[in-house]
């Protein structure tokens, strides 16, 4: 099965400067701009803003 380009694999990098990343998929049709989520950063031991890194 070929990978679908509609749902590419993206990295979410912490804006807190810890260098921690999450890897996920996103739907380009529903969210064409860069993804921003608030997720847990285990280096900080608290929630932080994670932005899509290309």
Automatic annotation (TrEMBL):
GO BP annotations, alphabetical order: translation
Gene3D superfamilies, per the entry: Ribosomal protein L33 (2.20.28.120)
A Pfam entry, by short name: Ribosomal_L33
A GO MF term: structural constituent of ribosome
Cellular component GO terms, alphabetical: cytosolic large ribosomal subunit
Keyword annotations: Ribonucleoprotein, Ribosomal protein
PANTHER family: 54S RIBOSOMAL PROTEIN L39, MITOCHONDRIAL (PTHR15238), LARGE RIBOSOMAL SUBUNIT PROTEIN BL33M (PTHR15238:SF1)
Family that this chain belongs to: Belongs to the bacterial ribosomal protein bL33 family.
This protein's name: Large ribosomal subunit protein bL33
Organism, as annotated: Sphaerisporangium melleum
Gene that this polypeptide is encoded by: rpmG2
């Amino acid at each position: 099965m070929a990978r679908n380009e509609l749902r590419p694999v993206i990295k979410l990098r912490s804006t807190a400067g810890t260098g921690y990343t999450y890897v996920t998929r996103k739907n380009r049709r529903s969210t064409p701009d860069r993804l921003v989520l608030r997720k847990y950063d285990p280096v900080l031991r608290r929630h932080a803003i994670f932005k899509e890194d290309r």
